[in-house]
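FW: tagging you since you asked about this chain on Friday. Here's the raw sequence from the shared folder, copied in full. Didn't touch anything.
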Amino acid sequence: MSTCADRSSQPLDRDEILSHLAGDSFVVDRLYVYHEVESTNLCLLEKNVDAQQLSGAVCVAETQSAGRGRRGRAWIATPYCNVMLSASWHFEPPTARLAGLSLAAAVSTVRALQDYGVGDLGLKWPNDIVWHEKKLGGLLVETRSAGQQSTLAIVGLGINVRLAEDDAALIDQPWVDLATIIGVVDRNRLVAYIITRLHEMFREFTAMGFAPFQPEWERLDAFSNRWVHLRQGEHTIEGQVLGVDDSGGLRVVDSLGIVKTFYTGDISMRPAT
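HL: got it, structure written out here
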């Protein structure tokens, strides 16, 4: 098994995380910290409690046996070295606009990283956190019906804190970890910052949807005004990124001047060459 060579390998500790949450009693009975789970999203989905009790719950794990990214890909992370976390929230009407939730969650995660002192961060639609266009982290949102008029949403995220060389060799795109950017990381403190920012985001999103996060997302957009290739299934579309709409859809104009909007799905984006 790959291991970390510095203090980033210190174990995640529930009491230590809570100590950085400034007495946030809301999460005390809803924070679950494990050595290993199948996935942190499933960790919450399989809790035998109702959706309202899961609102605000957080699962953090040192390693996942079946961690997933977008499009069913395995999430690669060196055990006991990184951050793998899921947080859930119970949404009721009038919030039926969850399409932009992953983008709002990405903004909140960047805020947490900035709180920790990480600069030069960007976002790549729909759910990647990048540093100098190298992938630092990613998000995956899953939803479950919680009754006729309510939804349980689970935001799963992974942050590269320190990747061992043999694990990094399995990643098929440019990547970076926090050890490279800022050195040693206190993962317990970072997790607390992420929880705080996600809970702030959930409350604001409940009231106003994605709209309050749209301007910040566009400021962080690493591909703003650039020409890109969008691959959707067997089809590739080339166009210039115009930004995102108030539902989180990516707006692209092609060479004929036709504007198209893409929503979360089986889409990958690469710079045009």
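FW: The two ends are 38 Å apart (CA to CA).
HL: agreed, and The chain has two domains: 7-219, 224-271.
FW: great, closing this out.
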